[in-house]
């Protein structure tokens, strides 16, 4: 399948003044934050989440709460773009409790929507789930990233909800574990969890010190007929994209941009082959459009194709021009990156209902945890 990453670069009109950086609460990042996260329709297996379709908060389609922070900044070595970070800040960016180095608390949570583990359809028949169905929840996790490493007494805990309506602890990791991403498999091994409204939940137990002691979770898969003896990831994903507009800067006035030698070296796209044994031939494409949907740059699949080794990443560079002839006071650019794995990319379609990974960013927010984006500030020349 094709994977696509869409970036918008917007050039806004403003007189340039210097101001100190301000705290940016999470509620100012996305209108999505105004949506009430709660229980929705019951899901069926398989369940898949890699957070590539979210930013700021997890999708309400899969998750019933929004306590974690979905970002592409805290973990440069994530399996692919976007991870869920347990950062000890609630959905509006405030610590859950009064800060204290002497108190430990349950902080962030990531809770699935209800999942039907009572029965499944097999043709015209309805079949009850059994322990022998080899149902596993797998996920990647690590601590620290670009944040602070948890204390040894801190932990990340996984709970399953049972037929007794209680949350049962089924896995945990201490703060001195997982400095790099590890994949974990947890089996559903008792009928206590074979219910029509099963849920799973991660919670971090941490010192009440605010935005420190980070945990990160990514690439969550939940399905039957699985085995921990087989490496079954067959996926190529986008890690990050650099618009390459500037050299050495995130923001500069548009007038300075067109008159200086600060123009960048062109866009680039970093991808990763998550297969552990198979090399994957992958093609790359980039289109850049202006506000009038005119294509200013187009490098097609036929221009670039390469083999990406198993469990390796690769960066494709694009010879994009300097966009120094944009018109209007608030010109915008839209970058559309697409990768097309030619083989060994068998992520099931029912894991993921969309064929594209789409990121849209119209402004840069100078706040730790935001993804890499670009904004050109055009001075008011009237």
Give the topology, please:
Blueprint: E1 3-13, E2 47-49, E3 69-71, E4 83-86, E5 100-111, E6 119-122, E7 125-128, E8 136-143, E9 155-161, E10 167-174, E11 182-187, E12 200-208, E13 215-223, E14 236-242, E15 251-253, H1 254-259, E16 268-273, E17 280-290, E18 295-299, E19 305-308, E20 312-317, E21 332-341, E22 375-378
Parallel strand pairs: 1-22, 15-22
Antiparallel strand pairs: 1-21, 2-13, 3-4, 4-13, 5-12, 6-7, 8-11, 8-13, 9-10, 9-12, 14-16, 16-20, 17-18, 17-19, 17-21
How is this structure best summarized?
This protein is mainly beta.
Low-confidence stretches: 7-36, 348-382
Number of helices: 1
Total number of strands: 22
Overall morphology: globular
Radius of gyration: 22 Å
* Secondary structure category: mainly beta
Q: What is the H/E order?
A: EEEEEEEEEEEEEEEHEEEEEEE
Mean pLDDT: 76
The amount of beta strand, in percent, is: 35-45%
Q: In words, what does this structure look like?
A:
With 382 residues, this protein is mainly β. It has one helix spanning 254-259; strands at residues 3-13, 47-49, 69-71, 83-86, 100-111, 119-122, 125-128, 136-143, 155-161, 167-174, 182-187, 200-208, 215-223, 236-242, 251-253, 268-273, 280-290, 295-299, 305-308, 312-317, 332-341, 375-378. The strands form 5 sheets. Strands 1, 15, 17, 18, 19, 21 and 22 form a 7-stranded mixed β-sheet that branches. 34% of the residues are buried.
